[in-house]
Structures are given as structure tokens and as C-alpha cells.
């Protein structure tokens, strides 16, 4: 099914090619939005409200999507920006890794285009009934596509009690070769090393290089992070608001082989730099309050 939502053009004027939003059945016949703007293209699946693609017209894709990803109900999509909520990892007693937001089918609530060609989309997770470990709240996700990609996860606590949760925008970035990049912005920040039993350490490097599996939760940091990719000659900027944690992950060889929905060699073309509130930075949201987690992803030529 292809329904086109185009900007209105005055009679006699050539039809604007951009901006354009097309609703179609994507991989696995899952409904998705295909977005074209004067600067870029993007794709959002209603499954998990997952942005799976963002690419500026004159650059390689910014987001990484595994060629082996599943696109099926109840399964997470491997790549793009998975929404992690209401817990990170797999705490005791939880049956799914990284919560359930990324495997729910979200609803498209609003779509807007501005005269300059920016496209914004608002999605909402299906409501649930208040329960002892899951207070009644509204979850919205706002995606803005132009020369950059901005995503915002908004959680409104409608219950009569505090709501404690973790959230994270688990972003997968495309890189030329993981051995040719450096991650800048985390020097002096403490992190929990998931490969060393969550031991707390301090980052001593101004430019972090990747040469083995990395799985670190940097805590108490509002910092912007840059991914400087000398292979693609590109710098990716990860700016964030409402986030105290930054997670850096690359599965490397063994874990890549162990993941069914990830190619054995795909670790070379990706890095995860994730923005959220995890572990000691978990959120406690009082009744009636709203929590906002916002990330702006942009790129420029590597100087
Ligand atoms: O990004 C950090 C992490 O928690 C890693 O430990 C790894 O499990 C990754 O998330 C991917 O998790 P997923 O459930 O998507 O396979």
C-alpha cells in the first residue's frame, strides 16, 4: 500500500519533489514511513517507533542497520535507533532484554512539514493499564528530519505515584571501519565496564579507539560525543538533552558470531553510542511530571 503525503504546490508550479512522506509496507510487511527532505532521507517503522535509516543526500548512511535483522512482531530490529524503556539490559525478574518499547507497535499521531522542507512525526506507544510495577503513563516519540536527525522520547507520568525507569536511545552508527575511528568527549568520565562485572573505572583517553569488544556505561555525563571516522572522512556529533548516561558498544568478533540477527563481520561497520539514563542515572519521575530524552545527530566533513 503506498499513500503519498506531499506538500501542496501552487497551480502551474512544478511539483515539489521534497519534502515527501510515503506510507508503505517495509521489510516483513511491517508498516513504515519513508521520508524525503531537501537534505536527507529517513525511514521509521511503527514497530518499536524505530528509525532504521537516516542518510544525507551526499553521504553514506548515518545509521547502521544489520543485513541480518529480523522484521517480525515481538522481535527487536537490529540497528537504527532502538528505544530502550522502561529498563536497560535484563534486570532480575524481567523476561525481555532492554524493556518492551522496541517490540510494541506504536501509533502515528501527527505528521508535519514546514516550508523549508523539515518533516516531523509524532508517535505514541499504545497505552497500558496502571499496574504495580508499571504506573500509568503516556510515551511519545518525536522525530524531526532535516539536515540532521533529532529524536525525543517523552514520558508523562499520569499515575498517582513515583515512576522509576531507565531509558536509552540505543543508536547504531555506520562507520567505514571500526578500527579507523576515535570517540571524543568522554575523557575523565567514570564508566561501568560490563565486560568486567560492571567495575567502575575512569576514562583516561581523549580519543577512544576500538580494537576489541567494548561495552561501557558512562555515567553522570551530559557531554556531546563525536565519532571521528577517518575512513569515511566524517565526524558524527551526538548532542543530547535529558541524558546523564552514554553507552558505548561494539560486539567485536565472538559476540557478532553469537548474534543470529547480526552478520559475523558487521562489527567492523558499526559503533553504538547510546544516550539515556541507565544504572545509577535511572530516572525517578514524580506523579504528573514529564521526562524528556532528546538526541540530535548530525555530521560534517572530518577536518
Ligand atoms: O549496548 C549495550 C548492550 O546492553 C550490550 O550489552 C548488548 O547486549 C547490546 O546492548 C544489544 O542488546 P540487544 O538486546 O539489542 O541484543
Features:
303 residues; mainly beta; Beta-galactosidase, Chain A, domain 5; eight-stranded antiparallel beta sheet; disordered N terminus
Task: Please explain how this structure is put together.
This protein has 303 residues and is mainly β. The chain is 2% helix and 44% strand. The chain has one helix and 24 strands. The protein has one helix at residues 252-258; strands at 3-6, 20-25, 31-36, 40-45, 50-56, 83-84, 107-113, 119-124, 137-145, 149-157, 163-165, 167-169, 172-174, 181-184, 190-193, 199-202, 207-208, 214-218, 225-229, 234-241, 245-250, 270-277, 283-285, 290-301. The strands form four sheets. The chain has a nine-stranded antiparallel β-sheet, with no helix packed on it. It is globular and about 60 Å long. The structure holds 6-O-phosphono-beta-D-tagatofuranose. 6-O-phosphono-beta-D-tagatofuranose is lined by residues 76, 89, 97-98, 170, 194, 215, 247, 249, 272, 274. The site of 6-O-phosphono-beta-D-tagatofuranose has 11 residues, from β21 and β22.
The name of the CATH topology is Beta-galactosidase, Chain A, domain 5
Rg on CA atoms, Å: 19 Å
User: Overall pLDDT, averaged?
Assistant: 94
What would you call the structural class? Answer: mainly beta
Compute the separation of the termini in Å: 44 Å
